[in-house]
Amino acid sequence: MENQIDLTVDGGRRTLSVDTRTTLLDALRETLGVTSPKKGCDHGQCGACTVLLDGRRVTSCLTFAVAQDGSEVVTADGVHDGDDLHPVQEALVEHDGFQCGYCTPGQVCSAIGMLDEAKAGWPSHVTEDLRAGIELDEEEIRERMSGNLCRCGAYTGIVAALAEVARGETGRGTDEEARA
Amino acid sequence: MNPFDYERASDARGAVAAVAARPDAQFLGGGTNLVDHMKLGVAQPGMLVDVTRLPFDSVEARPEGGVRVGGMMRNSELAADPLIREWYPVLAQALLAGASGQLRNLATTGGNLLQRTRCPYFQDLTTPCNKREPGSGCSALHGWNRDHAVLGGSSECVAVHPSDLAVALTALDAVVRLQSPGHDRGLPVHSLYKLPEDDPSHDTVLEHGELITAVDLPEASPHTRSAYRKVRDRASFAFALSSVAAVVEVADGVVQSARIALGGVATVPWRASRAEEVLRGAPATEETFRAAADAELEAAEPLRHNEFKVALTRNTIVAVLRDLAAAEEGSG
Ligand SMILES: Cc1cc2nc3c(=O)[nH]c(=O)nc-3n(C[C@H](O)[C@H](O)[C@H](O)COP(=O)(O)OP(=O)(O)OC[C@H]3O[C@@H](n4cnc5c(N)ncnc54)[C@H](O)[C@@H]3O)c2cc1C
Ligand code: SF4
Ligand code: FES
Ligand code: FES
């Protein structure tokens, strides 16, 4: 059943016609040709399809496009600032945070969402004291990024990259983490 | 996937009426379970009524005490809510131990409570499963059943209820608020779920078209402490092999009150009332905690591959109680 929907994708307004069965991921990739979000598992288990939906990181494979009519989607393709990479992208390059690159766009969006959640003071499973503030150390980063799998095992680089970005944002990470 | 109609609900009454009017209609929350099941062919609704824009998306203090949690609130926002973190740590911890950051941003309170089992045979259309297809048989009973239930199973089904949130809410004595095609009602979480017995096809006692609009948490006593502990195959992003939610008050070395629920080991979020009975009024010692765990697990009926869950759960119950009692002493 075809429906006409509006989406803002990476800053541009798009109007498209989708079958109700189309996931947001398939609408982006197949209908709009926005191929930066990847299809890994199609079942919420790998994070390769992660995009920022109205500012929050979500798995785009588990939501129907029609349910996001009117929403704003940002993919890894839309996070740069003019010619400059996003600090998360920059840090991933710097720290060898990827090999084949398939999981990377999902890692980028997830990391940006994760940093915002931490900035808002959201706790995680490894946060000792739920009432206190949080510090994005390596343990926190690993836990918060556990929804993004990497077949190449670039985790060490990813964690180092995000620790560096977190340190830049909060001034709270340690040199140890940035070098790890 | 079968074609389906989609409707975005703008008021709760309309949403209830729309689903009640069509036997093949279903509510759509974050979609993280339903969309998955539609892809697999496990669910085949002809109509989805999207309830995520209904205005039940916050935590509010109730004038009579306690708080009301919105049925459409996202799991991530609920876990981060200051009232929940301050007064109901067991709830925040249970949510944070579930799924991943990007899934919790989609998943809603109502959807989480009504997510269906992760039994692999239930999700695989090529295998018999009484829950998916009544009367076809249970593939797990004599198949691979490491992840299945040791409590509350029947000869028809031994699937585990997967929700972490539901386990915490069971220990908190929460009440689910429902808008219904007939009379609206409130149901204690522990009576929302039904044991499989001879009909595992329905996980809950809900009627078709009943909408979860909120969950009410009773007032938290400043004297109680609570915690959620989840044991799984990896440190993060996995369902529970066993989990324990406990809300306990210890004073002068004696357990004044204890509410305990178990996850990952039972066909429903399991209220451990036998353990609670042993604990009430008993000295807060390791011995008591062991006796409580034993009393609860006496009824366990392990299957071929999950005998380990009994010892694991016993140890987890004792560890959680020990931690809560120690915290009590430390604060005294
Ligand atoms: C990879 C993966 C890992 C996961 N790990 C965990 C885990 O460790 N622990 C855990 O607890 N969960 C876990 N989950 C499950 C996840 O928490 C649930 O899928 C989610 O909470 C469901 O919420 P939803 O809003 O997306 O529901 P939906 O998928 O939208 O709906 C689920 C069901 O609830 C019904 N429904 C939705 N809202 C309402 C309402 N308000 N009133 C009445 N009916 C309603 C729908 O009709 C449907 O039947 C995991 C999921 C995935 C994909
Ligand atoms: S345990 Fe329940 S859900 Fe799993 S195969 Fe048996 S009947 Fe189906
Ligand atoms: S493709 Fe969406 S989580 Fe794997
Ligand atoms: S870089 Fe290859 S999957 Fe992560």
TrEMBL record, chain A:
Family matches, as InterPro entries: 2Fe-2S-bd, 2Fe-2S-bd_dom_sf, 2Fe-2S_ferredoxin-like_sf, 2Fe-2S_ferredoxin-type, 2Fe2S_fd_BS, Aldehyde_Oxdr_Iron-Sulfur, Beta-grasp_dom_sf
Domain 2Fe-2S ferredoxin-type: 3-79
Keywords from the UniProt entry: 2Fe-2S, Iron, Iron-sulfur, Metal-binding, Oxidoreductase
Pathway: Alkaloid degradation; nicotine degradation
Pfam family, one: Fer2
Presence of keyword Metal-binding: yes
Molecular function per GO: 2 iron, 2 sulfur cluster binding; metal ion binding; oxidoreductase activity, acting on the aldehyde or oxo group of donors
UniProt keyword Iron-sulfur present: yes
Listed name of the protein: 2Fe-2S iron-sulfur cluster binding domain-containing protein
Organism: Allosaccharopolyspora coralli
Automatic annotation (TrEMBL), chain B:
Domain FAD-binding PCMH-type: 1-222
Gene Ontology molecular function: FAD binding; oxidoreductase activity
Keywords assigned by UniProt, alphabetized: Oxidoreductase
InterPro entries: CO_DH_flav_C, CO_DH_flav_C_dom_sf, Diverse_Substr_Oxidored, FAD-bd_PCMH, FAD-bd_PCMH-like_sf, FAD-bd_PCMH_sub1, FAD-bd_PCMH_sub2, Mopterin_DH_FAD-bd
Listed PROSITE patterns: FAD_PCMH
Gene3D superfamilies: 3.30.465.10, CO dehydrogenase flavoprotein, C-terminal domain, Uridine Diphospho-n-acetylenolpyruvylglucosamine Reductase, domain 2
UniProt feature coiled coil, ranges: none
SUPFAM superfamilies on file: CO dehydrogenase flavoprotein C-terminal domain-like (SSF55447), FAD-binding/transporter-associated domain-like (SSF56176)
Pfam family, one: CO_deh_flav_C
PANTHER family on file: OXIDOREDUCTASE, XANTHINE DEHYDROGENASE SUBUNIT C-RELATED
Annotated protein name in UniProt: Xanthine dehydrogenase family protein subunit M
